[in-house]
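User: I'm new to structure prediction. If I give you an amino acid sequence, what do you actually give back? Let's try with this one:
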Amino acid sequence: MERGKVAQQTALEYRKRVCRAMDYISRNLDRDLSLQEIARAASFSEFHFHRIFKAAVGETVAAFTRRLRLERAANRLVASWRDDITTIALDCGFSSSQNFAKAFRHHFGMTPTAYRNSKKGNKAGKRENAWSLQAMYTSDMPFIGPVNNERRNAMNGKVREMPEYHVAYVRKMGPYGKETCKQAFGELTAWAASRGYLETGVWLGVSWDNPGVTPPDRCRYDACVTVPIGTVPDRPVAVQTISGGPYAVCHFELPVDSDSFQQAWEDAFAWVVDGGYECDDKPCYELYQQRAADHAEGKCVFDICIPLKRES
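Assistant: Good question. You get back a string of structure tokens that encode the predicted 3D arrangement of the chain. For your 312 residues, that looks like this:
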């Protein structure tokens, strides 16, 4: 095999395994993970793992882990108004509230208490959790009132028990928006077309990070299509499972080139707020409806799915 093709395949394999390492860290932020454990989870040699991760992600493993812990804590400070700061610090993997406060001030330029108080629209009560999660996906925006009745009826919001989705995916890092999504889905569509998944697969777009606290160039977006369990991925995709459980599901039909996608997210979170639901600490996703007639009309039909905590 030509040297160039070998190098390309190796680079793609590194990218898939680095994604696995990132996801493993994300799922275990409350634990102190060793480099050996993370490397093993991503099938890397421990000896070279930290250099490969830094080259692919632009951050060391330690810096990436610390940033995700701080971003999760920032979300919790706003989402869980009644939780004290020490509880949040420990739940997010910090050894003490003092260490957390020092790291938080260094990263965000203010204390955890000041950060919590600086967020608009957070009042103690039934609705504060959902409003703060709205800020996760619509950036740092002022308090927005309830969605009007016409839009509410059109999106037909419901709480549904969603299944797990076993998916092939392509991950891109960058600002959430058309360009990042287009690149990710372009690569995934080319891969899926030759394997028969264009018509048979369920298509999703998963947003992992909070653009209100995560630098835009660090935001992770996954273009996904369902595949049979046991599917062996090859370039440029990897595989993962999207969690099932209770979700708020809101329906939208928009022109493909519409500028209203952010408004759709705002409306979906407003529906969650009005219902007094509490969001879970998992990524949201868009679930796309693949209908030939809609494509012919240049229309995008999709559901916004927001994870909820299961009521006890």
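You can read the tokens as a compact description of the fold. Here is one thing that stands out. Residues 3-58 form one domain.
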